[in-house]
Amino acid sequence: MTDQKTVTPFQRHTSSWYESSARDRVRLLLDAGSFREFIGPEAREMSPHLDLFDLPKQFDDGIVVGRGMLGGKPLFVAAQEGRFMGGAFGEVHGAKLTGLLRAARDTRPAIPVLILFDTGGVRLQEANAGELSISEIMRALVEARTAGAKVVGLIGGRSGCYGGGGLIAGTCSALAVSEHGRIAVSGPEVIETNRGIEEFDSKDKSLVWRTMGGRNRRLIGGADAFVDDTIEAFRAAALLLIERAPAFDLDMLKAEQARLTERLQRFGDCADAVDIWAREGIADARSVPGLSTEAFTAIADKAREPRYDAR
Amino acid sequence: MMGWNKAQAARHVRRAAGAALAKGKIVEARDTTRLLEAVIRPGDRVCLEGDNQKQADLLARALAAADVGKLHDLHMVQSGVVLPEHLDLFDKGIARKLDYAFSGPQSTRIAKMLFGGKIELGAVHTYLELFARYFVDLTPHVALIVAVSADRDGNLFTGPNTEDTPTVVEATAFHDGIVIAQVNEIVDKVPRVDIPGDRVDFIVKSDKPFYVEPLFTRDPGAITEAQILTAMMAIKGIYAPYGVKRLNHGIGFNTAAIELLLPTYAERLGLKGKIATRFALNPHPTLIPAIESGWVEQIHSFGGEVGMEDYIRARPDIFFTGIDGSLRSNRAICQTAGLYACDMFIGSTLQIDLLGNSSTVTTSRIAGFGGAPNMGCDPHGRRHPSDAWLLAGKEAAPDMPAPLRRGRKLVVQIVESFGDKNVPTFVEKLDALDLAEKLNLELAPIMVYADDVTHIVSEAGIANLLLCRTRDEREQAIRAVAGYTDVGRGRDKKMVQQLRERGAVRWPEDLGIDPLDADRSLLAARSVEDLVHWSGGLYAAPSRFRNW
C-alpha cells in the first residue's frame, strides 16, 4: 500500500468518471448492453421554458433514465449530464427522475435505483417548476424506499451535487463519492455572495474541496464510500452499497437523527474541515488531501462515521 | 550659472531627507508614508513597481496614504496598473499623469477614470517600449520596487520573480534617482545578489509577503474539445510544416492545449525534437508533461509562476537559475528574446476584424498591452536566418530573389469563432475603434496589427495570410475560418474554394484531421492534479487550483 498519490496520469484516464458523459457512465457502469432507456432523446421531450430565454435545449433535457442490469440483477438508473446547463433540474428533467422513482415504488419485487448525480441544483430559468420537481423527487424517493427499494447515489461529476441535488442525495439510502465529487446545498459562490469572502472564498478551490469534496464528506459520514475516479470503482461501490444500505424504518431514522445530533455537538464549532479531521483523531490532518485512495480509505474506515445502523 | 550635476545635488537633498527616518538603509514599515513624503517631490516621475505578476503592494498602499498637500501631480510611470491603490492615487490627486503597459484587473475602472478625466494619459505601451522610454524620456525620479529579501547593505534577492526590477533600478539609480525597496525579510546574507546594494537607497520590511498573481496557470480541466481541435490544427498545420522550434506561447487555454498535446498527439505525428524545443515563456505548469517527456530543451522566463519554484529548482538544464538554485527571470531580456530570437508567437485574442487586426479591448475595458505585441510582431531588425523564418518569408514574397528576401516571424492568432458567452470573435469593426473615438485616442488599442499576423487558427480551419495576395483574398481567408459568425456566413464560397486549393485556407479535412478525434483523452494532463503527478510532486499547485 502506498501512502502518497503516485498513480501516473495515463493510468488514471482509462475510464475517468469525471471526464465521462452521462451516457458513457450508464453504458460502462451497467452490464454490457443491458440498458434500456425510458423517454430517450428520440422522444424529444425538451424543456418548454428555455425557448423563452433563447437558450439551447437538449433532446433528453440533460438526464438519462431507464432500466438495466448490474451484476446480473435488474435495477433502475438515472444519470444527469453535468455538461448541459450544469446538470440543473428543470421541469422535464425533474419529471423524468420522479417518474423513474415512482416506477421503483410500484415495482414488485423491489429493485434498486442508482442516481448518478451531476448537478448544480435547480435551473434558474425554470425556477418554480424546478423547485417543485425537487420536492416531488424527494417524495417519490422516500416512497420508493418505503416500498423496499434501495436508492444509491453516485457522485463524481464535474458539476458536483448541489442545491436540490444535495437535498435529494440526503434522502438516498447510501452515497458513493470520488475525490472530485462535491456534495452540498449552497454552492461556494452562493455562500460567498451572502456571507462574504471572509466566510467562504469561493475561488479557493482547495477550501471548496476540503469542505464539500469527497474526502470530507466521507469522513463526516456525508457519504458511505470513497472511490477512485474510475467507472470500475463506482461500479464496485454501487454493488457494495446496494448490498449494505440499511433498511428504511423507524429505528434507522432514529439512529440517523442521533448520529447527526452528535455530529453537530462534536464538530459544530470547527472553523475548517482540517479541524474536524484533527478532532476525529487523524494524526496528520493536513495530509488528508494528499493521501492515496488506499491510505485514505483505511483512515476513513477507522473513523466513527458513518455507522451502518444510521442513514 | 550652467551646472552639470543638478540631479545629483537634488538626489543628495532627497536622500538626506529620507535618511532622517532610516537606520542605515532600513526604514520601519510604519514610517513608509513619511519616507515617501520626504523623498518624493510634487510633479515627480515615480515608478511604482508591479506588472501582471508581482506587486510592490506595501509601497503602493503607503503612497496612496500620502498627504495630498505634500505629494500631488505625480507622473506615474509603471508596467502595471493592477492594484486598487494604483488608481486611488489619481482619485485623491496624488498622481495626475500616467504612462503604463498593463491594467488587467483594473481595466474597467481605468476606462471610467480616463473617460471622466481623472487621469491624464501619456500612452499605453508594450512592456519593451515602456522600459525603453525609462532610459530616454520617462526616467523615474523615484522607483518603488519589491524584492524577496535584502541585507543591511541593500543587496536585494528577488527570487524567482525578478521580472522588471533590474530594468527599473538601472534607469533610476544610474540617473540620480532614489530607489526604495520593500522586502519580505531582512537577512544577514542574501541567497544571491539580483540587485547590488549600491543601487538601493532605502529598504522597508513588509509584514507580509508581496502579492504575486499566478497568471500563467491554466487548469487542464477547463480545456474544451473545440480548443483541443484548434491545438491539433496548429500543431499539424503550422508547427510541423514550418518546423517551429523557438517560440512563445500566449496564456490562453488554446495554447495550454497545445502544450498538453505535445507528448501525445504531436508525439504520434513523429514531431518530437522537430518542433517546440526552445521557449521564451513563463514557467507554464501545463508545459510540465512536455518537459518531463523530453520535448523541451530550454526556457527563459519573463517572471516566475507561483507553485513552480521547486520544480524549476530540480530542472536547471531547462530553466535559467541562479547560484542559489532558484529561477532567475527578467522581463526586459525575455521580451527581447521573444521579439528577436523566436520564430513564432501564438496566442489568443478577443476580436479579429476582416483585415486581421486583433484586439482584447471591449468598449468598457482597457486591459493594456503587456508584452503580447512585443512577441506578436515581425521584428524588421532581425537578420539571422532559421528554416521557419525563411519559409514564411518565401511564402510572403515568392518572387523576391532569396538573398534580398526578409524572413517572416510567424504571428499566429488561435481562437474559437465564438468566444466567451458566445460572443463572435470575428467582427466587421473592432470595439477598439469605438473606444479610441470615445476617449479621443490617436491610436486605437490594437494588440496585433494585421500586417504582422501570418495565420489565424479557429476550430473551422487555418487561414494562411502569407499566401493571400490581395485585400479581397485576405478578407475571404479570414471569413473562411470564421465559422458560423456573421463574418463567416458572409464568405464567397467560390473564392474560399480557390483559397483552399492553394493552401491559403485549410479546413480540418484538408489537414487530415477529423474534428471528432478532438477529445480530452488526448490531453497529457486533464487536471491540475495530473500536472502535480507529472512533476513527481514538485509542482505545488496554488490553493485556488487544487480540487482535492
Describe the structure.
- The complex is a heterodimer of chains A (311) and B (548).
- Chain A contains 12 helices and 7 strands.
- Chain A is α/β, with parallel strands linked by helices and 311 residues long.
- Chain A has a 7-stranded mixed sheet with strand order 1-2-3-4-5-6-7, sandwiched between helices.
- In chain A, helix 4 runs parallel beside helix 5.
- Chain A starts with 8 loop residues before the first helix and ends in a 9-residue tail after the last helix.
- Chain B has 3 domains: 184 residues, 3-Layer(aba) Sandwich (Glutaconate Coenzyme A-transferase); 129 residues, no CATH class; 163 residues, Glutaconate Coenzyme A-transferase.
- Chain B is 31% helix and 15% strand.
- Chain B is built from 19 helices and 19 strands.
- In chain B, the strands form 3 sheets. In chain B, strands 1, 2, 3, 4, 5, 6, 7, 8 and 9 form a 9-stranded mixed sheet that branches.
- Chain B is globular.
- Chain B starts with 5 loop residues before the first helix and ends in a 14-residue tail after the last helix.
- The model of chain B has no long low-confidence stretch (mean pLDDT 95).
- The chains are: A alpha/beta (311), B alpha/beta (548).
- Chains A and B meet through helix 7 of A and helix 19 of B.
